[in-house]
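Supplementary Data S3. Sequence and structure tokens for construct A.
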Amino acid sequence: MADLPGALPAPPLDALRARLAERAAAAGLLDVAYRSLDTALGTLLVAATPAGLVSVTFDGAHPGQTLDRLAAELSPRVLEAPARLDDAARRLERLIAGRARAFDGPLDLSLARGFGREVVERLREIPYGETRSYAEVAAAVGSPRAVRAVGTACRRNPLPIAIPCHRVVRSDGSLGQYAGGTEAKRLLLGVEAARRG
């Protein structure tokens, strides 16, 4: 069809997606916007609601499971809309590079519930460049015996990097688990240690 006289070239797919996202948002039909983000930690999938950043996962290259979860737990109106996440992406990149000490944009904690929500709230209190043990976090939330539950809450933290679950380590000082893998945790802690001063 492009060979026909007067035929218009098809618009680039990215521009078409952007227009679709803008129209969906204007019509109140976009509840969750998402995009992938290539970082030093790997490809992240970041998502936001109108209230703020709601999800950061380390599965940006294979987002199916996360998108299904967002649709089931938040809204089926999920759409790739990279421009709506540009600001959040820049803030995350600044954290990963050590050019920021905290995520200072709006956060939506809708995916953090019950005890996990209590833990996530406490994680935000761990100072930049410092760590706390799972046992210390359990004590801080008033459940000193819930060390394993704290580990589970950290693993399920819907906003890693933005809410620093990487700052929680084992009592013996070893790293412990991390949603993005131990190398990602080591990198984040190393950046913070180097810039703490």
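Construct B, processed identically:
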Amino acid sequence: MQIAYTMAPGRGDTDLILFQVAQRLMQAGLTPCGTVQINTDRTDGGKCDMDVQVLPKGPVIRISQTLGKEARGCRLDPAALETSVALTETALRAGADLLIVNKFGKHEAEGRGFRAAIGMALEGGVPVIVGLNPLNQVAFFDYIADLGCELAPDVGSVEAWARAQVSARAAGADCAARASSAA
């Protein structure tokens, strides 16, 4: 089972890293599934809008709600998140080289969100990359136990890990196919 996580120090930096990694992997002919987050600044001075691009070629879904400039509550739109999860699980079942989850957030920490998709990928031998933030770090480590690998928060490190995992998985499948054809 291969799962890795990365956590960049700046606000939105992890999102940018995972977005760039997904783009590079797709340009190389790989098929990631999952989501990458795209933040858009608002002109009214409110917090940014949060959208996710469903991979590999799915829609962009707004996962934030506009609650007003002074709002302090969670802006996540749970229904939009669950839509992106359902699309991801469909893509995962159709066959993907790896799963990218933009963030192991509050919903995942509570057993919802992308948590089942992560489990499905790991059970199927599909490598997983997760964006992590300090707020949900403890819950993430409780979930993965000692299975995770920390990646430096830069595009090159995350991309190299992903390519290595996909290559190792493909080599394992080739060996299994040769062994069954020889029998």
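The radius of gyration is 17 Å. The chain has six helices and seven strands.
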